[in-house]
Fold:
Amino acid sequence: MSSIKIRTKRRNGQTQIRTLITHPMENGRNKDKKKQLIPAHYIQQLWVEHNQVKVMSCNMAGSISKNPFFVFQLIGGNVGDKITITWEDNLGNTDTNDRIID
Amino acid sequence: MLKSRRNFIKKVLSYASYGWLTSTGFLYSGLAKAQWTKEFFAASNYQDILNQLFPDVTYIKSKKIKFSRLPRKAENGAIVPIKITCDLENVHKIIILVRKNPHPLIAEFFLSSAVASEVTARIKMAKSGDVTVIAEAEGKIYYNKQHVKVTVGGCGG
Structure:
């Protein structure tokens, strides 16, 4: 199952894109039960594509909350258009998911 | 020899065309510059980050950058919701900074003209302090800030 959930809603000529990503977003400062530092593990880049065209991107670090939640507003957007969201973290993992605007 | 000369010409041409594209503003949707820079995110000095991000600019305080979901009192510093709305034209970059965090730079958003200048996220805050949002629009740098009181910090330690 993909780590990315995407929901879209069309209103007043804009499309609201809501996304929830399952990710620990460890900033490398927290300790586990044995008082050992948990290594940093966070998403570095995220980008949104509308019909394969990149419309925005975001750089971040461990200061974004665990399981990041974002809302973006796409200008325009029609039923049947494809929204693709991709992320890449500091360990080189990556995931992508898409959703058709309904 | 011939091969290396070919490569040389290729390189020169690609650099030249890149220069032309950037100078005409073709690539400057901000997205082309969206590299993840370790120095920015690992830095711990707030002023240093500002100097690195935008050297030699004047920051204009603007009420047109609005915080619509940021609480004045956050119970849990690990999840502080923030919604930023900019009533400015052609915003192509939005930056969130939390001054008192160990690493003040939180996120950079690079927006093309296909998206509205409105962003919602959830951030971590170590302790009470200012949340600063910087927006770059048509070459000018605007900022606005709001103080948030945090009851339980969310950056570990």
Notes: The longest strand of chain B covers residues 140-152.
